[in-house]
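haha ok so turns out i had the wrong file open the whole time. this is the CORRECT one, sorry everyone. sequence first:
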Amino acid sequence: MLNQIKCWHKVSVAQWHNEIKPSFQPAVLKGLLNHWPMVQAATTSDMALSQYIAGQDTGWQVDTLLLAPDSDGRIGYKEDLAGFNYEKRQYPLTAILSQLLKTKSDPQAVRIAAQSALVSNCMPEFTTDNPNPLLADTVIPRVWLGNKVMVPAHFDDADNLACVVAGKRTFILFPPEQVANLYIGPLDYTPTGAPISLVDFSQPDFERFPKAREALQHALVAELEPGDALYIPALWWHQVKSTADVNLLVNYWWGGSIGSADSRMAPFNGLLHSLLSFRELPPQQRQAWSAIFSHFLLNCDDEMLAHIPPQKRGIQGQGAFVTKQAITQWLVKSLAGHK
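then structure:
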């Protein structure tokens, strides 16, 4: 039995900013968005939801994954990681929802997952009609639409508020420290852009993945219904399973390399660059470098730099962000020289 994610009711803006968000712990915000017209349409009927979306859909072509019925809807790799187990197409939201309604309750239906579509492209009136009471307007919403599909455990480098509009979703979350027990696939060859776990944590194969037992000891779980929201802190691994024939989710990312108007460079790119630099070093050197990384990267503060005049701190100072383009060009040149 997995531990339940803490559930909050009638969350106020003050609770969100002073208690929930600073905790860096997952939280279910029960019924936060019951007032949304889109949620009210979805809870009335699938047809009401279809009419609501049809009234807003611009016809924008949304990235959509199609999976064979025998995939059980699990987005991932083919056998031996030889490619991905889906076809990628593009359709408008209304066409996708129409297909979902046609194949509802059909066990042999193609599994469908329309992913991460900017509402500003496909439903520009959405934000006006369905405002998020907790987040700034600069945090850009995205829509996810499909049937019974599962996204393997993965992480985002941004904070995430996942809001269920239609259907149900089961989330299994793991703290960042559990990465060694999650059996992560290739970092630079991923089905959906983020590294994923090769374990299906809803039915784990412990013979193949024995350390998954330890991961599940630290797992948190929640089942969300329409109107519920889930706060997923940055870098928390999360497996997401849609369990209804029609599921729709709107999510918001902020504070990372994706999602909001102030998106920053991805730390994950730094990891890949570091792998190129460090992978072939002997263990003793890698251990020595860990102390240097810890000092300059993880423990960096103003006191550590007090012996250097502010205007001379270079890449360690705040002025480094002003010269981000120059730093990026330096990295590109450096990598190009080691092809």
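The two ends are 49 Å apart (CA to CA).
again sry for the mixup
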